[in-house]
Amino acid sequence: MADQAFVTLATNDNYAKGAMVLGKSLQGHNTSRKLVALIGPQVSEPAREVLRNIYDEVHLVDVLDSGDTAHLALMKRPDLGVTFTKLHCWTLTHYSKCVFMDADTLVLSNVDELFDREELSAAPDPGWPDCFNSGVFVFRPSNETYEKLLQRCTEDGSFDGGDQGVLNSFFSNWATADISKHLPFIYNLSSIAIYSYLPAFKQYGSEAKVVHFLGKVKPWNYSYDPKTKSVKGHSQDPSMVHQDYLLKWWDIYSTMVVPLMKEHYGSQPFHSGVSEVDDIHHGVAHVHVSVPPPPPDISSEERKQKWEQGQADYMGMDSFDNIQRKLDSFLN
Ligand code: UDP
Ligand code: GLC
Ligand code: MN
Q1: pTM for the full predicted model
Q2: How many structural domains comprise the chain?
């Protein structure tokens, strides 16, 4: 057990907040494994201090960046080139087996049984289920694998510009070779999937063990009022469909992480730009984010065509709420 660990990554203070909440959620569910955080040089000293308080090990690593703007643009996520940094997890060779978890994941119950699985075990990606999602995966640290992965990155790049593309190309037989390497979806339930298949979520959602706030808008981008324990957000955002997980994240953040920040650094702003700790003193934690503008209006004929081509605008006009409203108005 001492040679097994949960590993995450944060290259900046925002993702560090995610890592803090993730670490607390793993501890809250009594994991018997070690906790390791990989951080980049941009993470501020106060944030490092809090991470050291939660994690058994905090390692500073070089930030690797794919610099692959073309592929990243396809995903509409120019920020994800740095996810190549994730590959450093293979260098943790003082562990025999690890589970990597994105900093935007949250554990809802004990998941130590993941260590029964072998490299490379992961859950299907909600957007392309023949690929695995690299937000949660079981791996065996090895310098040899690390070198091979880096070589793959330099020679072939990554089809999505981030780690998930290169990992899927490298572990290319994941989809077909061994079903035991397919983690059940409940170990990496992405907020996107909740939205795109709501009936399945209603049927199976209560079994979820790990929620993944996949996508542009992260829990730390919302506003939270600790007094009323409520979260305010963007109506365009799919994860608003299920606020319970967001509230869980914010509850851990405000009750277990913020006190640690205060303990180490009084009421100093946690990082430049956003004085979140200060804001919490005033009752409301406010963080501003820019969200993409709403899609341009289209005619109902165009909309119908899009529907027929399977291109419903699930995030906007054809959102579940809107469909429900329409149905309600028919029924009444
Ligand atoms: N990450 C990071 N800094 C960044 C972007 C990503 O540390 O600027 C790490 C972090 O652990 C994050 C993971 O890489 O959870 C993958 O990125 P993200 O979760 O944003 O991708 P998504 O799951 O939304 O596709
Ligand atoms: C995905 C994964 C994330 C990964 C990113 C870049 O959407 O959720 O973990 O870092 O793609 O490849
Ligand atoms: Mn993620």
Answers
A1: 0.82
A2: 2
